[in-house]
Amino acid sequence: MNFTEIKTNRVTSAMVALHAGVSQPTVSRVINNLSVNPETVARVQAAMQELGYVPRQHLSGKVSDVDQSASMSNIFSDDARSWHSSSTLVAERAGVSVSTVSRVVNNRSVDPITAAHVRQVMQELGYAPRPFASRPGPRRTELKGLRTGTIAFLARGHDLEQLSRLPIVVNVIHGIESALAERGLAMVQSALDTDGQRLPAIVAKRQVDGLIVWPNLNGVSDASIEALRPYPLVYLMSMQEDRLPGDRVKTNNRSIGALAARHLIANGHRRIVYVTSPGMVGFLRERWDAFARVAEENGVSAMQCIVGEENTDLNMTDSRLEKLDALMERGVRQLLNYKPRPTGLFITCDGLTSQVYRPLKRLGVEIGTDMEIISCNREFPILEALDPRPKSINIGAKEVGRKAVERLIWRIQNPMDNTYVTVEVEPRLS
Q: What is the CB-side half-sphere exposure of residue 275 using CA atoms within 13 A?
């Protein structure tokens, strides 16, 4: 099979999203004539025309490009009836044999490029393999207790637009998917209503074995919390959820803060600043506490500088970018007015680093000479656009995803254990 020919013969909504600088859910909302900023609509439509993209309903006469605003990345439909698209259809669309589709589904030896292409087609068609419990053959001991062989990744609806553009989230999901694939399991992604009143159908119908939640259930109604209570679940990157306790898997924020401070101090900086946004202050408090403690232990002055506004989308690409840039410049001016001026910055995530770079350079700061920056998350698509490229702490996003799967399987198999644990993944600077 010539993968290059297959890939180029069919333009996907993912390609349109990348070309237009928006998320896949936004492309789908434009296709379905749902509420989208007019400038964004024009940009998406221009990208569709330039790439020659035709939505599937125009090809087949049926509406198959459904509204994906309730799905992070066009992974699967919530409606269980769409799960049973024929494996033959997947094979035809992917240009492979049915047996190759079967080998991919069962995680058997398949060329990695071919396997990736088949999985992409499965996602586009909303195809899910037969329920886990009904598959033929012996069950692996480590997977006893799983009924459907599928878990759900849940996030609040208003988070989806931002999450789908974050490389760090993509890396976590990659870790989840790889850990599941090694066990012959599957994942669906879905959104919790922004008003918290309705659960995704696949969850409400008990068609998954457990839940991985990003990051918590704040804003979800008490009725929905009670409906979720029977499920084993694991939270990602969150603080504790009081109404519905569960295991957590997260990065070790204390280690991250200490690592950043030690790096700057080792490079000779005596006045260092921790730069963050309002939405991260409480969420990453442990990170700042560790940063400040290490600075104090070494006789170094450390300050915290908060830039931007609450709920600022650091990855916006539309007309709001001008407003974001103005907010960042205001915060950067405040930072540069500190006396004496700091020479070392730790910026709490790569997305924020990319927004701080512009006003720093505009205000005459030579990054790498006048001021050293260390960033966090190691999100290559963001870092590659920065000159000079800063060091960035690897928080182990893929490992977070893998650990979440391990913990969820343990929880599924030990439903009577009422103790909850927090698993922390150690960062590294390389």
A: 31
Residues 221 and 155 occupy one common structural domain: yes
Residues 322-354 as b/e (b if ≥16 CB within 10 A, e otherwise) read eebeebbbebbeebbeeeeebbbbbbbbbbbbb
pTM, entire model: 0.68
User: 356 and 264: one domain?
Assistant: yes
203 in a structural domain: yes
Residue where a domain terminates, one of 245, 262, 295 = 245
Provide the number of structural domains found in the chain.
4
Contacts of 112 (CB under 8 A, 6+ apart): none
Task: Tell me whether residue 306 is exposed, middle or buried, using C-beta atoms within 10 angstroms of its C-beta: 0 to 12, 13 to 18, 19 or more.
Answer: middle
Encode pLDDT of 390-402 as tens digits. Answer: 999 999 999 999 9
| CB distance 147 to 133 below 8 Å | yes
Alpha helices in 10-97 (DSSP H): 13-20, 24-31, 38-51, 56-60, 87-94
pLDDT digits (tens, 9 = 90+) for 368-385: 999 999 999 999 989 999
What CATH number corresponds to the domain at position 273? Answer: 3.40.50.2300
